[in-house]
Amino acid sequence: MSSGWLTALTTNPLLKGRVEIVGLVDLAPGLAAQRAAEFGLVSAQTGTDLNAMLDGTRPDLVFDVVIPAARAGVVETGLAHGCHVLSEKPMATSIAEGRALIEAARKAGKVHAVVQNRRFIAGVRRIRALIESGALGELTALHCDFFIGAHFGGFREEMEHVLLVDMAIHTLDAARFMAGKTPLSVYCEETNPKGSWYRHGAAANAIFSFADDVVFTYRGSWVAEGANTSWEGAWRIIGTKGTLTWDGGEVLEAKVVAGAEGFLRDVEPIAIPEARERARIEGHASVIADFLDAIEAGRPPETASADNINSLAMVFAAIESARTGRRVPIQT
């Protein structure tokens, strides 16, 4: 993950000249130095102690790219040193921990935000624009299929609820963003299918209820070999006038009813708005740019932790539903 962040920071035009990387920290001796050399960061200090690095370099920002279990400590340390912090997802390992981080940022008077980079791709922003335009009528449902046989190795293979915590957070956040609706409750079943190379929870099926009677369904697996979807999933968005489909890549199609007679009504294609701002569709670079812009403008970034906790709540409610076999309200 640090490679993706550093690539965005050092090569993307959105960020050119905006950030000077003064230090890299990793618990594994030599790994930070290896990354610095890989990206030509000849003036960056490297080490294994975050407190010492922050004391020595006195930076404005901390980029938190650690495993979820270490996140709270890194964020709290960064805030305590007067730094704004941008974290990998998920923002916390529990809702209580998430609330504590939001409060810590408030008390420090600093910005804490989360890398929900899927919001910053063209397809997601185009779907949001089409829904907002009313061309599909009133939104009634969103459906997403996510099926990939992903062989990461490393910490993910030992995580509990690995799909919901480490991947579904992207899809759930995207659904909440597209719909512009508040998630209210969820029923979820979680499994670890035969042949899984993960210890726990590599597949899940969930039905979310959003405000205004909007339904969102999620079907996902990280051990589905043979017919991978896009990393963004395959989507169907339904309104009272028509439907949009998206393959998670370049293919978006929308059709609306064009006739008032017949068992199956005639339909016609409609145009899908282009993403309005190129600067908003660059993935990691756009999240970082929005974070920097927000700090400079004194406004919350789009993925501020105070908002992102609503997506985190969807994840933990789904986990609770899978554990209890009951529909669970979504609360932050």
Automatic annotation (TrEMBL):
**Which intervals hold domain Gfo/Idh/MocA-like oxidoreductase N-terminal?**
16-114
Give every GFO/IDH/MocA-like oxidoreductase domain span.
124-244
Instruction: State the InterPro entries in the record.
Output: Gfo/Idh/MocA-like_OxRdtase_N, Gfo/Idh/MocA_oxidoreduct, GFO_IDH_MocA-like_dom, NAD(P)-bd_dom_sf
Signal sequence range:
none
**What Pfam families does this protein map onto?**
GFO_IDH_MocA, GFO_IDH_MocA_C3
Q: Name one GO molecular function term.
A: nucleotide binding
Checking Gene3D superfamilies in the record gives: Dihydrodipicolinate Reductase, domain 2 (3.30.360.10), NAD(P)-binding Rossmann-like Domain (3.40.50.720)
* PANTHER family hit by this protein: CONSERVED EXPRESSED OXIDOREDUCTASE (EUROFUNG), OXIDOREDUCTASE
Instruction: Please identify the protein, giving its name as recorded.
Output: Oxidoreductase
